[in-house]
Amino acid sequence: MYTTEIIKDKFWILEDAGVKLGTIRKEDSTSNFEVIMRSKGVDYLDLDALTTKYGKAILTPKLVNKIDSVEYGKALDEVNGYPCKHKACNSGMEEKSGKQIPVYTKSDTSKTYYAAGYYGLHFSGVWRNTYCVKLETLDNYEFVGPFKTKTELEAEVLKASKQD
Q1: Based on CB atoms within 10 Å of each CB, which residue in 82, 113, 127, 161 is the most buried?
Q2: b/e for 53-86, b at 16 or more Cβ within 10 A?
Q3: What is the full DSSP assignment across 89-112?
Q4: CA 90 – CA 111 distance, rounded (Å)
Q5: Cβ density class 103-127: b for 16+ within 10 Å, e for less
């Protein structure tokens, strides 16, 4: 178990193997710490109790090279051959508008699904290129896709734009 320091000497995220377990916040008025653990509630501990419970180095942040997502056009993972910009969990296929959409979540416990691959979305009268959008976005807008490459997407968006 280790922490990632968010605000120097005030706020830490408690993690284990990259999984967020809770937060630690130093209270301003006292030298106590508020520890909020996922599904375990809140503890108020002084420094001695905190280090006894979590170890002497708990407030020494661990330097972790962590990649949660990448920029447009870069793939961190894939779902059924479609690129995605996050590490894919709970992957599968779902039907939307008569098309099979590769879907995934960003963590094992997440309930928010993303659509892997490239999509063209039609909103405000204009077609836009998108990458790994939230699945609910495909319910709200007309779309083309999924595509495995930007080149395929751009060709279809150009064709769709000419039809408008």
Answers
A1: 82
A2: ebeeebbeeeeeeeeeebeeeebebbbbebbbbb
A3: EEEEEEEETTEEEEEEESSTT---
A4: 10
A5: bbbbeeeeeebbbbbbbbbbeeeeb
Does position 68 have pLDDT exceeding 70, yes or no? no
Q: Which two tokens stand for residue 90?
A: 């709970």
Prediction pTM value: 0.58
**pLDDT tens per residue across span 20-38:** 888 989 987 777 899 988 7
Asked whether 101 and 146 are in contact (CB, 8 A), the reply is: yes
Among residues 80, 81, 115, which one has the least CA distance to residue 96?
115
Spatial contact of 14 and 7, defined as CB atoms under 8 Å apart: no
Residue spans of alpha helices (H) in the chain: 47-54, 135-140, 150-163
The Cβ of residue 155 has, within 10 Å, a number of other Cβ atoms equal to 13
Per the structure block, which two tokens stand in for 62? 């661990």
| Residue written as token pair 């509630």 | 41
